[in-house]
Structures are given as C-alpha cells and as structure tokens.
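Example record

Each entry pairs one chain with its bound ligand, flavin-adenine dinucleotide.
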Amino acid sequence: MLQPESHDAAPADTLWDVLVVGTGMGGSTVGHELARSGRRVLFLERGHFLFGSADRGNGTIPFDADDSPESRLRRGHWPLPLQGRTSFGPTEFFAPLGCGSGGSSGLYAAQLERLLPADFEPRANYPEAGDCTLPESWPISYQEFVPWYRRAEKLYGVRGTPDPLNPDPDSALREPPSLSARDQDFDESFRAL
Ligand SMILES: Cc1cc2nc3c(=O)[nH]c(=O)nc-3n(C[C@H](O)[C@H](O)[C@H](O)COP(=O)(O)OP(=O)(O)OC[C@H]3O[C@@H](n4cnc5c(N)ncnc54)[C@H](O)[C@@H]3O)c2cc1C
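Structure tokens for the complex follow.
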C-alpha cells in the first residue's frame, strides 16, 4: 500500500559506513555530522521526501481532514492510528508524529531549548512518586551534553537570549529577532509579575 521511495539511483551498489533509520531531528542530525566527517551515510525513511512537494495545507494538524494513510503521508504525518489501552479501555488515536523527511520537526514548535541539569536527576524532582521506576539519574549528565548542545545550537542557528537559570557563557546563540507588538506586550506584563 505505502510504497517506499529512494533518492539514490542504486543504494545497494554502495558500501555504506552507516545506515540511519529515520530522518527526524535525531537521525538527520547524527547522519549529517557523520557525513560531514567523511562517512558514507544512507538514510532510510518510512515516509516521503517532502521538500518542495510537501502538501502541508495551512500548517495545522488536520485531525478532521482526509485521514487516509496516503493523504497523511503526503502531509508528513504518521500514517496510521496508534492503539493503546487506558483506564477507560482501549483507544485508537492519531499521534502528533511526523513521518517523512524531517520527521516530527515538520510539526514541531521550533523552540530549541536545552534540558536543565535537574532533568537528568528526575527522581529528586518527584520525591512523592514512591514506588515507581523513575531513575535517580540518567546514565549521562547535563555537563556531558553541554558541548553537544553548543554544536547543535550552532548547526541549527538557534536564536535566543541566555537562560538566567542555566547560564552558559560559551553558547553561541544568535541574536533573537525583535518581538511583535503583541508578544512585547505579553513579555512586559509577564516581567511585571
Ligand atoms: C506538535 C509538536 C510540537 C513540538 N514542539 C517542540 C519544540 O518546540 N521543541 C522541541 O524541542 N521539541 C518539540 N517537539 C518534539 C520534537 O519534535 C521531537 O522530540 C523530535 O522531533 C523527535 O525527533 P526524533 O528524530 O527522535 O523523531 P521523529 O522526528 O519523530 O523522527 C522519526 C523518523 O523516523 C521515521 N521512521 C519511523 N519508523 C521508521 C521505520 N521503521 N523505517 C524508517 N523510518 C522510520 C519517521 O517517519 C520519522 O521521520 C514537538 C513535537 C510535536 C509533535
């Protein structure tokens, strides 16, 4: 039903160093870095190659539009509903997941913020959680991530002002664009609080 497509004339004729499954923010970033360091990288993507030919409509997530798998794939959305079970019983729903070049970054809100150091020690944030599987800490720390955050922010040209709650004098954030009048009003009223 859903035909895979290839943009390499004969991918089987090349000896690839790395196969990256999925071209979302994660896969495409790591594949890009590996390709730039000289590795031959093959991306395998379930959805369509969307640049230029994407049918994005007006940019909203059209839950009420044509929900056929083909139509969803053309818009860059995950084609099939997910099935799950909740305390209300079984359920089926379309998850807000991207499918196609760019993955979910075709839908996302484009806020590229860092996690906070405390996010890497989740158990301490929820002392009342009791008997649960929330780990004390992740196997990696925020500090180990910092050089990669800097590289990713540079790669994606992230704009913003330094986070006063999590300062990093060596981050290379580009200057943010000026706020619209409405956002400026919101910002000022927020700061006044
Ligand atoms: C509405 C919305 C708003 C968001 N806003 C933000 C935000 O502002 N800031 C932020 O940081 N994050 C945001 N997120 C979250 C962010 O978009 C995701 O965390 C991120 O895109 C996940 O990247 P990923 O590469 O892990 O997965 P995805 O981007 O989901 O990519 C996975 C890719 O793998 C492909 N794939 C899956 N299975 C296969 C298979 N078997 N074979 C081949 N290919 C396969 C998929 O088609 C897809 O292209 C938002 C998400 C949504 C839905």
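Residues 21-27, 44-47, 96-100, 103-105, 107-112 surround flavin-adenine dinucleotide (CB under 6 Å).
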